[in-house]
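A reminder before we start the practical. When you read a complex entry, don't treat the lines as separate problems. The point of joint prediction is that each chain is placed relative to the others, so the output describes one connected object in space. Small molecules and nucleic acid strands, if listed, are placed in the same frame. In the example below there are three entries. Take a minute to note the order of the lines before looking further.
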Amino acid sequence: MAKSPRRVAGRRLLLPLLCLFFQGATAILFAIFVRYDQQTDAALWHGGNHSNADNEFYFRYPSFQDVHAMVFVGFGFLMVFLQRYGYSSLGFTFLLGAFALQWATLVQGFLHSFHGGHIHVGMESLINADFCAGAVLISFGAVLGKTGPAQLLLMALLEVALFGLNEFVLLCLLGVRDAGGSMTIHTFGAYFGLVLSRVLYRPHLEKSQHRQGSVYHSDLFAMIGTIFLWIFWPSFNSALTSRGDGQPRTALNTYYSLTASTLSTFALSALVGKDGRLDMVHVQNAALAGGVVVGTASEMMLTPFGALAAGCLAGAISTLGYKFFTPILESKLKIQDTCGVHNLHGMPGVLGALLGALMTGLTTHEAYGDGLQSVFPLIAEGQRSATSQAIYQLFGLSVTLLFASAGGVLGGLLLKLPFLDAPPDSQCYEDQMCWEVPGEHGYEAQEALRVEEPDTEA
Amino acid sequence: MAKSPRRVAGRRLLLPLLCLFFQGATAILFAIFVRYDQQTDAALWHGGNHSNADNEFYFRYPSFQDVHAMVFVGFGFLMVFLQRYGYSSLGFTFLLGAFALQWATLVQGFLHSFHGGHIHVGMESLINADFCAGAVLISFGAVLGKTGPAQLLLMALLEVALFGLNEFVLLCLLGVRDAGGSMTIHTFGAYFGLVLSRVLYRPHLEKSQHRQGSVYHSDLFAMIGTIFLWIFWPSFNSALTSRGDGQPRTALNTYYSLTASTLSTFALSALVGKDGRLDMVHVQNAALAGGVVVGTASEMMLTPFGALAAGCLAGAISTLGYKFFTPILESKLKIQDTCGVHNLHGMPGVLGALLGALMTGLTTHEAYGDGLQSVFPLIAEGQRSATSQAIYQLFGLSVTLLFASAGGVLGGLLLKLPFLDAPPDSQCYEDQMCWEVPGEHGYEAQEALRVEEPDTEA
Amino acid sequence: MAKSPRRVAGRRLLLPLLCLFFQGATAILFAIFVRYDQQTDAALWHGGNHSNADNEFYFRYPSFQDVHAMVFVGFGFLMVFLQRYGYSSLGFTFLLGAFALQWATLVQGFLHSFHGGHIHVGMESLINADFCAGAVLISFGAVLGKTGPAQLLLMALLEVALFGLNEFVLLCLLGVRDAGGSMTIHTFGAYFGLVLSRVLYRPHLEKSQHRQGSVYHSDLFAMIGTIFLWIFWPSFNSALTSRGDGQPRTALNTYYSLTASTLSTFALSALVGKDGRLDMVHVQNAALAGGVVVGTASEMMLTPFGALAAGCLAGAISTLGYKFFTPILESKLKIQDTCGVHNLHGMPGVLGALLGALMTGLTTHEAYGDGLQSVFPLIAEGQRSATSQAIYQLFGLSVTLLFASAGGVLGGLLLKLPFLDAPPDSQCYEDQMCWEVPGEHGYEAQEALRVEEPDTEA
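Here is the predicted structure of the whole assembly.
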């Protein structure tokens, strides 16, 4: 509890300096490189020959807002389940997310839309940046409660760069399809975070064990996150799929997959629960696995039945993961996975990549007709067979796992830098480390109430 | 408290088996019957001659997402007002809703869009399935806290089938108009639930009375539900009304009606409250009656004034219902209506059906011009006079009340099956029946805190 | 605590009578004056020659729903941070908002769209009414906890009228640009509320000081408000900007500005916090200043860098305002600003107006091309130079400050009317004044638990 004055002074300056330095650096890079794209710039748009209704905005904006809500409301509140870590869960989600959006704009811009010395940003950039922020927040879930904000900012710095690189290799170099990011977002974010958590392994974390669970209200707050993720996931997967049939098909597949993962989660949770009781952790997380598992395949001709089957399987695996695999992960593999991202994003993400490869291999010209061009342009143009595209999909998964693991190791070593002010083992999962905390746990407001009480009794 | 081992074993298997059986059955039926519709299928869409912007998706998707949010966030959190039943309220909303979406897709598909041996699903199917899930959750509100999850799944099984049948009779056979579902959703859902609750009457429910109220925080959670329902209701009523003028008119009428029901709710709540105090129950529920009461009429030329008048009346009746009618309902009619669905959905739903009939009877060619075709095709085509259409509307209300009541009786008898594991009278409104519950009410986390305290004092 | 029976009787009638009178009056005015506009009326729409996709609804509705969510979910929950005032914060937001929407429709209708003896309402009217309700809720933030519902309704009555007038002078008479309302909404709402709070100065407010802070859970509820405001702010600023490039550019600028204000808020909060700790009040509020500061300039060619710079500055100023300026505001200027609206809406609003004037002065034909017409029609048509338009912008700010201050004084005097039942100094920030409050603070539910306990122990 007692801190050296120097350490306190260090912390006082560390976070402000990092924030201001990062903000300053991205602002300078924005000034030099970032410009409005043709849909967003007044002169360029009006120079073109199109009706206002053709603007990308009207095809993407409602989905963008849903994705934005998922990243900040969804991931943010999902992590409020911890009893004394709600400020940090929401606050650091906010901080990491905001930084990731700026930095991802630059990284993705340099790799995807750098023309004539400039990055051109528009609706798609915003959605892509939100996707990247989503991956960062998935990794945050693995190390939640055991890392300080300065560590997390450095994690985001590294992860966004590697995310952009991995995405570039998959989508641009390998021609892999991954509209909803089973690989690029979920698998990458999960294994990056898990490997990082392994490097940061804390053998004496049991000192904070009493804060690692939820309380009644914190579980209700977490359900805000769950439900917003669940309802908006169809927008997440379809935000960048092709206009016309692509967006509704993706949304519809995701919708049905999620209903199935919900049913299988309840079934398995009751089956493995003590006295047949349901477990809130399963409902909060595993019910969402249906969205992850169709991240790659939902834009394909998966069929509504295929969506149900995939969701059902993902919900079951995820629930069993929480029950049986998470404890082993900690005891045997020394991976402390606070939110169970391995169960929600890791395994369902890999499963989603495999499902995507399977659906790709089964692609026929009959099933897609003239729509093949927008889902599998390389097959439609005769450059690849369905089988070879499927092999590329599997190769994309391997590349992702490689990037994520290497990044996690690198990130872990980076975060071990001693001046980054990691919380001690006994102060994990505790908002007081970084926040002024009022009431209920014995602070100002509580004091005031204590002072008041004698008056009432007198 | 003490349970026979056999009962526990039964429960352990009952819910998993039901979930898996239902999921398996719908999956098989999906595999056989459900196909993408022309807007969603790659080959069919690209075979047609249309621009991508014509896809139904761009006219319906934002409204669909709002409806989806209302059903899961809105209805879910609205029921969290009970102090010890938040997990169940949110969890069973999730479970029932997910199952209802799948099952409604099949039932509505067989009745509405079964062509060439297949059900064709697209944006409208998703919205219709959400509407049906909404009706199931209204019924859930009537029996909240007094039923287990297995009972609720069976209720949903029956209710979805009857909902689809009633909807088919009204919209397809009788040619009744009911865009926002004053009859098909609210009246049906409410009276189905109320009659079912009557059949399940518990004379000794006072044993759980101390859990039947709210606590401070649970009321704030419930307000999440209220406000999301309130803001998105314009989308609920307009999600399936005609393109062009139909959607904005419906949304606008609903918007104004809700402002009026809010004002009249506050007025009446303070008027009948102890010492002029406002009651959160009224604000959480009756303020929404304005959305219900224009469910039928909001697509019509109701005029903004008509919307205000209807909303004002609905808010007042609903508030008075909570104050004076709910107690009578329990004491005289033996209907225990946990959420007061009779006040929010029952009476305003019937009132909405009557308002719809009135507006229908007042329809003129002058008021609608060439727009008459899309609101009242049968009148526009000269097959019916306005008066005869109005009589059909009233007949639709009667049919709905009949289906709902018969369904409620049937459902009540079904849910009385002894192996369905209903909670005992003393354990109603209690999450512990079905959930692992941490903290605050004396479980693990609390234990940990107690252990910790001596350390702090030492 | 003891009240005279007459006072209680007065209160019992005051709020109901005000609500019903206001509702009755607006309903009558709606009946006489308000009609559907050409996009919403069946006959008028079908009389025109356009495709359904041209309807304003499809360009504005998704943004409208986001704005609606911001006003009721965002502003509502943001004010739940007070430990014992959650019912009032949410309930009065609801009441004031609903009344403001109706009354603003009339006021703005008379001033902006009164043709042929009628006000014509459609999508834009709904958005404009929501904007006005937003301003009323900003003022509510300044007097939160110190005013009763009857006082607040009268405040809304006056403020909506003056808001409409100020907006009319700026947008219609002076030709000022202010799409996201840095002046018309934020500056106006903040200074109206602050001056009003000054007139209502309570020298003995410390009697309620122990209720003026937050508790752990109330801060989490407030974050619901913060995050929904943050994610949907791009829709707020772009809801009424021009079709085509205008809406995406405005949304994009707002998005980046908010990321920057979030980073600078965290930096400054940690810098000025005790032991380098972060303060939830800053994160809840100052992180949003980026949305306010680009309210005027976001539709202009601000550039992504400009958005970052503006947001960064606004977040920093707002955080420093909470830390250093709010205490002075109370001690020296006798302005008790409950939510710190001066920091979130006042200073960033004025800054936003200045930024707007700067960007206006820098306008060139090259930067906007043919798009100049839709952002600065008077410059495009040659009626004004960029400099003279910039001077008009500054003049608009002065007019706004004048209207707001005069309105605040007038409002303060009005709210001092003794029969309006203001809460006594010792009962401020306390829900019990106006609401039936259960549990946790020693009411019914708590009683029930006490009764139960002996049974358990016996």
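Discuss with your neighbour: The two ends of chain C are 37 Å apart (CA to CA). What might explain this?
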